[in-house]
Amino acid sequence: MLDWITNTITAFNYWGIALLMFLENIIPPIPSELIMPLAGFTVTQGKLVFWGVVVAGTVGSLLGALPWYYVSRRLGENRLKQWIDQYGKWLKLNSEDINKSQDWFMKYGAAVVLFGRLIPGIRTFISVPAGLQKMPFIEFIGYSLIGSLCWNLLLTYAGFVLGQNYGLVEKFLGPVAAVVLVGLALFFIVWVVQRKRQ
């Protein structure tokens, strides 16, 4: 996997980063936790420009978020689950993943699209409940843009700082994901309290 990612970035530069991040949002096993830090490392070698890497990764992420959003919106929950149960094994998906993403969306609302982009394992699936709940497209793109930009900026900077040790980024993502989850829980609690006061 690492060799393929490295070769793609080396051969296609920014286009390769955008392509990999597009695929990462559609096919879960391709990890952005390797793509963007590796791209950040290439910046230290003078082969790419930092902000070019971030923009390429973010454009790829946004484009990759759209297929699941549109498919879920068009098919609806029952047909989507039938399709996933039949073909999802190729994408490492099952209907339980759809249920989990639905629960997250129902519990935390539209903001989960923003925070979901920062959490490994959820990032790929967060487009599904947004599509199923027919979240307005502009709102979906706005939240996805902010979340993807923050995530890609963090990973690129980590790869830039760590240099050849960019592989260590994955080890530090556990605490980052925990902080995001706690922040999301606090956001939900504050929201509930404000609603009750009203």
TrEMBL record:
Localization: Cell membrane
Top-rank taxon, per record: Bacteria
A Pfam family the protein falls into: VTT_dom
Record's bilayer topology term: Multi-pass membrane protein
Transmembrane segments: 12-30, 50-71, 140-160, 172-193
InterPro entries found in the cross-reference section: DedA_domain (IPR051311), VTT_dom (IPR032816)
Alphabetically ordered keywords of this record: Cell membrane, Membrane, Transmembrane, Transmembrane helix
Domain VTT as annotated: residue spans: 30-159
Family: Belongs to the DedA family.
Name of the protein: DedA family protein
Species assigned in the record: Laspinema palackyanum D2a
